[in-house]
Amino acid sequence: MPTAWEPLHFVRGAAEADEPMGSKEKWWVDLPMFGERQWLLKLARLDELDGTVSGEDWAEWTVHQFAEQLGVPSATVRPALLEGRRAIVSRSVLRDRLEYLDHGNSVLSARFADYDQSVQGENQGYTLAAVRDALEEVGPPADTEWPGGFTAFDVWAGYLLMDAWVAGRDRHHENWAVILRGDERRLAPSFDHGNALGFQERDERRVRMLDDELHLMRWVERGTSHHFAGKPKLTELAWSALGLASPTARRFWVERLDAISQDAVHSVVSQVPRAIMSEVTHTFVVRLLATNRRRLLDGYSGT
Prior knowledge:
About 40% of the residues lie in helices and about 15% in strands.
């Protein structure tokens, strides 16, 4: 069963230093009842024209639940309210103060002297082969049992499969990282999944896509990565990543995705209150996940 949707309540003044990376309003907070790790409080953005709240909160929470179903390690996420304003809190992937986070752009720059880590959009150096090489001496995430011989890139390929499944378009080179602990280097769990599941669409358009399969297919086909070289489609990026991963990893991730049932998806989405995720949005998310799952499984030709 997925974690219940139970928002944590905050008041202003409970937060610490601003998180410098990204554009959202966010702060680090302490939640002693859940242990010593800090949590990042992120407000769902408001539309400047009509004040509508975006769906980043429910998107990030549900993607974390889907990551667990798929077997992708990810930052724990809880819904939250800051003086009534919708938000989420995401637990730090660092286990204690002995660990440090080295984001992907820094990891790639350390491996390739000419890698431009300042690029915000499409980066010609940001390729699957480059990431595989940069992760060559990095171990897979800790606290998870992986099949024998699993590499960090084998796990990272699963991150891209998840992105394609949930229509997540934000896997830029600062949206993954390596955890440093002394001489040990391990891939960090996946984090920051708010840009997914068509969170920004309005229900009027969702209704049109639900009523017209071709309209929905055109929408999902436009799902590309704006960050990787060549701006590939999310499904093609996932297939290519699995193609570069080990045969064990290909079988592992494809079998995990194949095993996820519609009932399991419904059990997650149904936890979100209809005041936050409308019935139309609920139906759209379930249809979107079924569509992308079918596209990934039918289109993958790896052995």
